[in-house]
Amino acid sequence: MTARKKHVAVLMGGWSAEREVSLVSGAAVAKALEEEGYTVTAVDVQRDLDGIIRALTPKPDVVFNALHGRGGEDGTIQGVLEFMGIPFTHSGVLASAIAMDKAMTKRVLETVGVRSPRGMLLHKGELLGGGHPMEPPYIIKPVDEGSTVGVTRVHQGQNSPIGDGWTFGERVLVEEFIPGRELTAGVMGDKPLAVTEIQFAAELFDYTAKYTAGHARHIIPAPIPDEVYAEAMRVALLAHRTLGCRGVSRSDFRWDDSKPGIEGLYFLEINNQPGMTPLSLVPEQAAHVGIGYGALVGWLVENAACQHA
User: Which residue from 307, 309, 308, 305 is spatially nearest to 5, judged by alpha carbons?
Assistant: First the structure.
Protein backbone atom coordinates (compact mmCIF):
# COMPACT_ATOMS: atom_id res chain seq x y z
CA MET A 1 0.00 0.00 0.00
CA THR A 2 1.31 3.46 -0.93
CA ALA A 3 1.70 5.81 2.05
CA ARG A 4 -0.66 8.80 2.06
CA LYS A 5 1.05 12.04 1.08
CA LYS A 6 0.70 14.82 3.60
CA HIS A 7 -1.67 17.77 3.42
CA VAL A 8 0.47 20.92 3.40
CA ALA A 9 -0.80 24.46 3.92
CA VAL A 10 1.53 26.99 2.28
CA LEU A 11 1.46 30.35 4.07
CA MET A 12 2.33 33.28 1.81
CA GLY A 13 1.76 37.00 1.47
CA GLY A 14 1.54 38.51 4.94
CA TRP A 15 1.63 42.19 5.78
CA SER A 16 5.34 43.05 5.69
CA ALA A 17 7.25 45.08 3.12
CA GLU A 18 8.16 41.74 1.53
CA ARG A 19 4.57 40.67 0.78
CA GLU A 20 4.98 40.51 -3.01
CA VAL A 21 8.16 38.42 -2.77
CA SER A 22 6.43 36.04 -0.38
CA LEU A 23 3.55 35.57 -2.83
CA VAL A 24 6.03 34.56 -5.54
CA SER A 25 7.87 32.21 -3.15
CA GLY A 26 4.62 30.66 -1.95
CA ALA A 27 3.24 30.08 -5.44
CA ALA A 28 6.46 28.34 -6.53
CA VAL A 29 6.47 26.17 -3.38
CA ALA A 30 2.79 25.20 -3.76
CA LYS A 31 3.27 24.20 -7.40
CA ALA A 32 6.36 22.13 -6.61
CA LEU A 33 4.72 20.35 -3.68
CA GLU A 34 1.71 19.44 -5.81
CA GLU A 35 4.06 18.01 -8.42
CA GLU A 36 5.70 15.98 -5.64
CA GLY A 37 2.30 14.45 -4.81
CA TYR A 38 1.31 16.46 -1.72
CA THR A 39 -2.18 17.83 -1.14
CA VAL A 40 -1.68 21.59 -1.01
CA THR A 41 -3.75 24.48 0.31
CA ALA A 42 -2.40 27.95 -0.43
CA VAL A 43 -3.18 30.55 2.25
CA ASP A 44 -2.76 34.28 1.55
CA VAL A 45 -2.11 35.46 5.10
CA GLN A 46 -3.65 38.74 6.25
CA ARG A 47 -3.21 40.48 9.60
CA ASP A 48 -6.24 38.60 10.93
CA LEU A 49 -5.66 35.95 13.59
CA ASP A 50 -9.20 34.54 13.36
CA GLY A 51 -8.80 34.29 9.60
CA ILE A 52 -5.50 32.41 9.95
CA ILE A 53 -7.03 29.95 12.41
CA ARG A 54 -10.04 29.37 10.12
CA ALA A 55 -7.75 28.79 7.14
CA LEU A 56 -5.84 26.16 9.14
CA THR A 57 -8.97 24.34 10.34
CA PRO A 58 -9.11 21.39 9.97
CA LYS A 59 -5.42 21.23 10.70
CA PRO A 60 -3.05 20.36 7.86
CA ASP A 61 -0.31 17.82 8.50
CA VAL A 62 2.39 20.48 7.99
CA VAL A 63 2.56 24.20 7.31
CA PHE A 64 5.12 25.38 4.80
CA ASN A 65 5.99 28.88 5.97
CA ALA A 66 6.75 30.93 2.84
CA LEU A 67 6.18 34.26 4.61
CA HIS A 68 8.95 36.87 4.65
CA GLY A 69 9.63 39.81 6.92
CA ARG A 70 7.78 41.02 9.99
CA GLY A 71 5.04 38.73 11.18
CA GLY A 72 6.33 35.80 9.15
CA GLU A 73 10.00 35.45 10.07
CA ASP A 74 10.20 37.03 13.52
CA GLY A 75 8.52 34.36 15.67
CA THR A 76 4.98 35.78 15.39
CA ILE A 77 3.38 33.23 13.07
CA GLN A 78 5.63 30.55 14.57
CA GLY A 79 4.03 31.21 17.97
CA VAL A 80 0.55 30.85 16.49
CA LEU A 81 1.47 27.54 14.87
CA GLU A 82 3.11 26.27 18.08
CA PHE A 83 -0.07 27.14 19.99
CA MET A 84 -2.19 25.29 17.41
CA GLY A 85 0.11 22.28 17.50
CA ILE A 86 0.82 22.29 13.76
CA PRO A 87 4.31 21.32 12.51
CA PHE A 88 5.89 24.02 10.36
CA THR A 89 8.97 24.45 8.20
CA HIS A 90 12.03 26.52 9.06
CA SER A 91 13.04 27.84 12.47
CA GLY A 92 11.03 27.97 15.69
CA VAL A 93 9.92 30.93 17.79
CA LEU A 94 13.16 31.78 19.59
CA ALA A 95 15.56 31.28 16.68
CA SER A 96 13.25 33.27 14.39
CA ALA A 97 12.97 36.17 16.84
CA ILE A 98 16.74 36.40 17.32
CA ALA A 99 17.62 35.94 13.64
CA MET A 100 15.19 38.68 12.58
CA ASP A 101 16.82 41.15 14.99
CA LYS A 102 20.14 41.99 13.32
CA ALA A 103 21.61 43.68 16.40
CA MET A 104 20.73 40.74 18.67
CA THR A 105 22.12 38.29 16.12
CA LYS A 106 25.44 40.15 16.13
CA ARG A 107 25.59 40.08 19.94
CA VAL A 108 24.82 36.36 20.16
CA LEU A 109 27.26 35.35 17.43
CA GLU A 110 30.05 37.50 18.87
CA THR A 111 30.07 35.08 21.82
CA VAL A 112 31.20 32.26 19.51
CA GLY A 113 33.79 34.36 17.68
CA VAL A 114 31.84 35.42 14.59
CA ARG A 115 33.17 38.74 13.30
CA SER A 116 30.77 41.32 11.89
CA PRO A 117 31.25 44.96 10.87
CA ARG A 118 31.78 47.45 13.68
CA GLY A 119 28.44 49.05 14.51
CA MET A 120 25.95 50.50 16.94
CA LEU A 121 22.22 50.42 17.56
CA LEU A 122 20.59 53.87 17.67
CA HIS A 123 17.12 55.38 17.94
CA LYS A 124 16.09 57.00 14.67
CA GLY A 125 15.75 60.33 16.49
CA GLU A 126 19.50 60.30 17.08
CA LEU A 127 20.06 60.28 13.32
CA LEU A 128 17.50 62.91 12.29
CA GLY A 129 19.24 66.17 11.49
CA GLY A 130 22.25 65.28 13.59
CA GLY A 131 25.89 64.59 12.83
CA HIS A 132 27.35 61.35 11.63
CA PRO A 133 27.58 58.58 14.26
CA MET A 134 30.76 57.31 12.58
CA GLU A 135 33.05 58.36 9.79
CA PRO A 136 31.38 57.84 6.36
CA PRO A 137 30.97 55.76 4.37
CA TYR A 138 28.78 53.58 6.55
CA ILE A 139 25.57 51.57 6.27
CA ILE A 140 22.25 52.20 8.01
CA LYS A 141 19.62 49.49 8.10
CA PRO A 142 16.37 48.69 9.90
CA VAL A 143 17.11 46.26 12.69
CA ASP A 144 14.25 43.91 11.78
CA GLU A 145 13.52 44.04 8.05
CA GLY A 146 14.67 41.62 5.38
CA SER A 147 15.41 41.74 1.64
CA THR A 148 17.59 44.86 2.12
CA VAL A 149 14.45 46.93 2.72
CA GLY A 150 15.53 50.37 3.98
CA VAL A 151 19.26 49.65 3.77
CA THR A 152 21.22 52.76 2.73
CA ARG A 153 24.87 53.64 2.24
CA VAL A 154 25.75 57.03 3.73
CA HIS A 155 28.48 58.99 1.96
CA GLN A 156 30.93 61.67 3.00
CA GLY A 157 29.26 65.09 2.76
CA GLN A 158 25.72 63.82 3.32
CA ASN A 159 23.98 66.14 5.80
CA SER A 160 21.70 63.70 7.63
CA PRO A 161 21.85 59.89 7.52
CA ILE A 162 18.05 59.55 7.42
CA GLY A 163 15.14 61.88 6.73
CA ASP A 164 11.72 62.40 8.28
CA GLY A 165 10.33 59.80 5.88
CA TRP A 166 12.05 56.85 7.61
CA THR A 167 9.27 54.27 8.05
CA PHE A 168 11.23 51.20 9.09
CA GLY A 169 10.87 51.32 12.87
CA GLU A 170 12.39 53.23 15.76
CA ARG A 171 15.66 51.30 15.98
CA VAL A 172 18.40 51.73 13.39
CA LEU A 173 21.54 49.64 13.03
CA VAL A 174 24.59 51.62 11.90
CA GLU A 175 27.57 49.66 10.60
CA GLU A 176 30.89 50.47 8.98
CA PHE A 177 30.91 49.91 5.23
CA ILE A 178 33.05 46.94 4.19
CA PRO A 179 34.46 47.35 0.68
CA GLY A 180 34.86 44.32 -1.53
CA ARG A 181 32.60 41.48 -2.62
CA GLU A 182 29.21 40.05 -1.62
CA LEU A 183 29.07 36.38 -0.60
CA THR A 184 26.32 34.15 0.74
CA ALA A 185 26.32 30.58 2.09
CA GLY A 186 23.29 28.36 2.62
CA VAL A 187 22.77 25.63 5.20
CA MET A 188 20.37 22.69 4.84
CA GLY A 189 19.76 20.64 7.95
CA ASP A 190 23.19 20.30 9.50
CA LYS A 191 25.33 20.80 6.40
CA PRO A 192 26.46 23.89 4.51
CA LEU A 193 25.47 23.84 0.84
CA ALA A 194 27.76 26.17 -1.10
CA VAL A 195 29.07 29.73 -1.32
CA THR A 196 27.75 32.07 -4.00
CA GLU A 197 29.28 35.38 -5.06
CA ILE A 198 26.69 38.00 -6.00
CA GLN A 199 27.72 40.61 -8.54
CA PHE A 200 25.51 43.64 -9.16
CA ALA A 201 25.72 47.06 -10.75
CA ALA A 202 23.85 48.95 -8.04
CA GLU A 203 25.59 50.47 -5.02
CA LEU A 204 24.06 47.82 -2.77
CA PHE A 205 22.55 44.36 -3.32
CA ASP A 206 19.16 45.98 -2.83
CA TYR A 207 15.55 44.85 -3.21
CA THR A 208 15.50 45.50 -6.96
CA ALA A 209 18.75 43.64 -7.55
CA LYS A 210 17.52 40.68 -5.50
CA TYR A 211 14.15 40.20 -7.15
CA THR A 212 14.42 41.58 -10.69
CA ALA A 213 15.88 39.38 -13.41
CA GLY A 214 19.06 40.76 -14.93
CA HIS A 215 19.99 43.06 -12.04
CA ALA A 216 22.39 40.64 -10.33
CA ARG A 217 24.61 37.73 -11.29
CA HIS A 218 25.00 34.68 -9.05
CA ILE A 219 28.33 32.87 -9.42
CA ILE A 220 28.36 29.41 -7.86
CA PRO A 221 30.74 28.21 -6.60
CA ALA A 222 32.14 31.61 -5.66
CA PRO A 223 35.54 32.20 -7.37
CA ILE A 224 37.39 32.93 -4.14
CA PRO A 225 40.36 31.35 -2.33
CA ASP A 226 39.67 27.93 -0.82
CA GLU A 227 40.33 29.15 2.72
CA VAL A 228 37.79 31.98 2.38
CA TYR A 229 35.23 29.61 0.86
CA ALA A 230 35.70 27.12 3.70
CA GLU A 231 35.48 29.86 6.34
CA ALA A 232 32.21 31.20 4.93
CA MET A 233 30.77 27.66 5.02
CA ARG A 234 32.03 27.16 8.58
CA VAL A 235 30.57 30.43 9.87
CA ALA A 236 27.23 29.86 8.12
CA LEU A 237 26.87 26.49 9.84
CA LEU A 238 28.06 27.92 13.17
CA ALA A 239 25.49 30.73 12.97
CA HIS A 240 22.73 28.25 12.06
CA ARG A 241 23.59 26.01 15.02
CA THR A 242 24.23 28.79 17.55
CA LEU A 243 20.88 30.47 16.94
CA GLY A 244 19.06 27.14 16.92
CA CYS A 245 17.83 27.40 13.33
CA ARG A 246 16.31 24.39 11.61
CA GLY A 247 15.44 23.50 8.03
CA VAL A 248 17.38 25.90 5.82
CA SER A 249 19.09 29.22 6.49
CA ARG A 250 21.40 31.52 4.55
CA SER A 251 24.17 33.72 5.91
CA ASP A 252 25.38 36.81 4.06
CA PHE A 253 28.94 38.14 4.10
CA ARG A 254 31.15 40.92 2.80
CA TRP A 255 34.68 39.98 1.82
CA ASP A 256 37.35 42.66 1.57
CA ASP A 257 39.65 40.94 -0.89
CA SER A 258 42.44 43.45 -0.28
CA LYS A 259 43.18 41.74 3.05
CA PRO A 260 45.15 38.51 3.42
CA GLY A 261 43.53 35.13 4.07
CA ILE A 262 40.22 35.20 5.89
CA GLU A 263 40.99 38.53 7.54
CA GLY A 264 38.62 40.42 5.25
CA LEU A 265 35.55 38.16 5.73
CA TYR A 266 32.70 39.73 7.74
CA PHE A 267 29.34 38.18 8.65
CA LEU A 268 26.40 40.51 7.90
CA GLU A 269 23.21 38.67 8.82
CA ILE A 270 21.40 35.34 8.75
CA ASN A 271 18.20 34.67 6.85
CA ASN A 272 16.33 32.01 8.79
CA GLN A 273 13.63 31.85 6.10
CA PRO A 274 15.45 32.50 2.83
CA GLY A 275 13.54 33.22 -0.36
CA MET A 276 12.16 30.44 -2.51
CA THR A 277 11.51 32.44 -5.68
CA PRO A 278 12.90 31.33 -9.06
CA LEU A 279 15.76 33.83 -8.52
CA SER A 280 16.49 32.76 -4.94
CA LEU A 281 19.92 31.69 -3.76
CA VAL A 282 19.26 28.65 -1.57
CA PRO A 283 17.40 26.72 -4.30
CA GLU A 284 20.32 27.50 -6.64
CA GLN A 285 22.81 26.22 -4.08
CA ALA A 286 20.77 23.08 -3.44
CA ALA A 287 20.67 22.41 -7.19
CA HIS A 288 24.44 22.91 -7.29
CA VAL A 289 24.88 19.97 -4.90
CA GLY A 290 22.31 17.83 -6.74
CA ILE A 291 19.08 18.63 -4.87
CA GLY A 292 16.30 19.79 -7.19
CA TYR A 293 13.65 22.32 -6.22
CA GLY A 294 10.93 19.71 -5.69
CA ALA A 295 13.23 17.59 -3.55
CA LEU A 296 14.22 20.65 -1.51
CA VAL A 297 10.67 21.73 -0.64
CA GLY A 298 9.67 18.11 -0.01
CA TRP A 299 12.62 17.70 2.36
CA LEU A 300 11.57 20.84 4.25
CA VAL A 301 8.08 19.41 4.73
CA GLU A 302 9.34 16.03 5.93
CA ASN A 303 11.97 17.65 8.14
CA ALA A 304 9.27 19.76 9.80
CA ALA A 305 7.12 16.69 10.42
CA CYS A 306 10.07 14.79 11.94
CA GLN A 307 11.04 17.74 14.18
CA HIS A 308 7.49 17.95 15.51
CA ALA A 309 7.31 14.21 16.12
Answer: 305
- pLDDT digits 0-9 by tens, 113-138: 999 999 999 988 888 766 788 998 99
Is 302 among the domain residues? no
Report if residue 305 sits inside a domain. Answer: no
Q: Report the predicted TM-score, pTM, of the whole model to 2 decimal places.
A: 0.91
Active-site residue 266, yes or no?
no
For every residue of 48-117, DSSP letters joined together read -HHHHHHHT-SPPSEEEE---STTTSSSHHHHHHHHHT--BSS--HHHHHHHH-HHHHHHHHHTTT----
Query: Among this protein's residues, is 150 annotated catalytic?
Result: no
Let me know whether 60 and 108 are in one domain. no
Residue 149 sits in which domain range?
Answer: 119-176
C-alpha to C-alpha distance for 247 and 245, rounded to whole angstroms? 7
Catalytic-role residue among 16, 19, 252, 264: 252
Please tell me whether residues 164 and 207 are part of one structural domain.
no
Q: What angle do CA 206, 28, 246 make, to 5 degrees?
A: 75
Catalytic residue among 25, 96, 249, 271: 271
In a domain, 254, yes or no: yes
CATH number at residue 55: 3.40.50.20
